[in-house]
Amino acid sequence: xxxxxxxxxxxxxxxxxxxxxxxxxxxxxxxxxxxxxxxxxxxxxxxxxxxxxxxxxxxxxxxxxxxxx
Length: 69
Fold this sequence. Notes:
Blueprint: H1 7-23, H2 27-44, E1 50-53, E2 56-60, E3 67-68
Helix pairs in contact: 1-2
């Protein structure tokens, strides 16, 4: 399975990481690590996630209010 981050998704990821880092030192890195873990879970189990719309599935992050589509 190939994972693709659109330009918009990459920008949103960088912005969220920066925002969390400003909020608390190290929190941005924790966000990035959780996001990477979610992507790894998606790659390992692509059909395990609920449908968001159509054939698009979503994986919710556990500690941050974000989802990976």
